[in-house]
Design brief:
alpha/beta, TIM Barrel, 8 helices, 210 residues, 4-stranded parallel sheet
Length: 210
């Protein structure tokens, strides 16, 4: 419904200070998406908009690329209450790989920090409600998209496009598997995290009209 700023449907997370919920058109959009069998994605939606969607939702909701606000207080991340509420709909929270969403300290730009976010979301929402949302958009933003005037809201010296070492593209995904194995996560749980939870949700809901 939005990226960082305001649209006719809702405010993005860059406008959190407004406290805005969905517009009337946004509410109608949620209803129509559910009727058609579309899965609603709350990533990028402002905090009040997320709460509004969760009040309205009658089908599972996703966050396709957001991390845990309890570990990194950034407006693009989700609170524990929001994670629990998404899990309660039967949805999935997919952890973002962009380093600035994982830590404010560049010394913590590591795969282990990513796994911290995964494990936190598991502890809050349950193992059936977590996935990966890498946000591999560096080439799109640097090569294909014209310069934009949006304030991404990072502040300071943080590079908003910085990835974790080795995790700037799909070839690095085995590093995540290796880190999960190193933490002692059971194989069945690793499979769920790497994609089975999202596939289960898609097969159950996507394209199935109400």
């Amino acid at each position: 419904m939005a990226h960082w700023g305001r649209t006719a449907l809702a405010d993005g997370s860059g406008e959190d200070a407004t406290g805005s919920r969905l517009t009337a058109a946004g509410v109608e959009a949620v209803r129509e998406m559910e009727r058609l069998g579309m899965i609603f994605d709350v990533s990028h939606l402002g905090a009040s908009g997320v709460e509004h969607v969760l009040e309205l939702a009658t089908r599972p909701v996703m966050a396709t690329h957001s991390s845990a606000r309890a570990l990194r207080d950034h407006h693009r991340n989700l609170t524990d209450d929001q994670i629990r509420a998404i899990a309660a709909t039967g949805g999935v929270v997919c952890v973002n790989f962009l380093a600035a969403f994982l830590s404010a300290d560049p010394a913590e730009y590591t795969v282990d920090r990513l796994v911290d976010h995964i494990e936190h979301i598991v502890s809050v929402g349950g193992i059936d409600h977590v996935g990966l949302g890498p946000d591999f958009v560096h080439e799109v933003l640097t090569e294909l998209t014209p310069p934009c005037c949006e304030d991404l809201g990072y502040g300071g010296e943080i590079d908003p496009l910085a990835y974790l070492p080795g995790l700037d593209g799909p070839r690095g995904l085995p590093l995540v598997t290796e880190a999960l194995v190193g933490r002692g996560v059971p194989e069945n749980d690793i499979v769920k995290i790497l994609g089975d939870n999202v596939l289960r949700l898609f097969r159950a809901e996507l394209g199935r009209p109400r």
